Amino acid sequence: MRNKTPIVLFLLLCSAFNYAQTTFSGTVKDKTSGEALAYVNIGIVNKNVGTVTDANGKFTLAIDSSFDGETIRISMVGYKALVFPAADFKKKITTDPLLFLERSTSNLKEVVIKKKKMTTGILGNVPARKTESAGFVNNVLGNEIGVPIKLKKKPTYLKSFHAMIDFNRYRELKFRLNFYDLKDGLPNNSLLSENIIVTSTLKKGQLDVDLTPYNIWAEGDFFVSIELIEGLGEGGLHFIADYKGTPVITRAASQGKWNADPADGLSFAFWVTAAY
């Protein structure tokens, strides 16, 4: 029998403490308008060392010398990503702390819809009752937790997202909702053309997010995640969870490596209302 005590998923940054670590600070702006860009992901690819820009486009990232041969990626939905060797990134930021992202034309695959009557239904892990409690316990920016969701038919139009919060001890919850297609069972490319930023003061119960303004279509099984984008202070955020749905997938920081089985098959109560 499984232990029914609350489960904590520790999403921690990995550090190599035997190397010299230096902190680098900068600002990310829109290349055309010069406007500061909030919540841009910055990190070392697949190394779980990363962060997110604040509301004013500013960031601080500690990088030790062991990562000089790795790749740093700066990205956000709707913009072309910037990629640097880590050593070049450090030189660039030391000389000029401004980074500029260029808007991209949408590279989302066109969905062809044949005229037909669509059925509205539920996809994902709807909780029947509380069996476990798990979630964020720290404020590492760029942390993501989510679950794969299987389609019944394709294409499928996503109308709303739902999650069952067990407890929210933050004054105000603010996060980015992400949707990805899947490759080899892991999150791959974003299904979005713009950010979905959600704020809520809900302490317990069902969280609902209207997706209709974002015109999200899925043509295969997909992944939905919640990403921390602001330091929330002391507290904690847990969701109702069980072992019946698709297992949780996490990553510890922006641009980090996806972890496909952090909690022995645990699944969160994340689901969507969809038309197909």
Could you walk me through the main structural features you see in this protein, from its secondary elements to its overall organization?
This protein is mainly beta and 276 residues long. It is built from 1 helix and 21 strands. Strands 8, 9, 11, 15, 16, 18, 20 and 21 form an 8-stranded antiparallel beta sheet that branches. Strands 10, 12, 13, 14, 17 and 19 form a 6-stranded antiparallel beta sheet that branches. A 4-stranded antiparallel beta sheet has the order 3-2-5-6. The longest helix has 10 residues, at 86-95. The radius of gyration is 19 Å and the shape is globular. The two termini are 38 Å apart. 37% of the residues are buried. Mean pLDDT is 89; it is low at 1-18.
Fraction of helical residues = under 10%
What structural class do helix, strand and pairing data support? Answer: mainly beta
Proportion of strand residues: 35-45%
Mean pLDDT: 89
What is the general shape? Answer: globular
Task: Tell me the number of strands.
Answer: 21
End-to-end distance: 38 Å
Biggest sheet layout:
8 strands, antiparallel
Gyration radius (Cα, Å) is 19 Å
Encode the helix/strand succession as letters.
EEEEEEHEEEEEEEEEEEEEEE
Low-confidence stretches: 1-18
By DSSP (H or I, 4+ residues per run), the number of helices equals 1
Secondary structure topology:
Layout: E1 21-30, E2 41-44, E3 49-52, E4 58-64, E5 71-75, E6 82-85, H1 86-95, E7 98-101, E8 120-124, E9 132-136, E10 144-149, E11 156-168, E12 173-183, E13 186-190, E14 197-200, E15 205-210, E16 216-218, E17 222-228, E18 237-242, E19 249-251, E20 267-268, E21 270-275
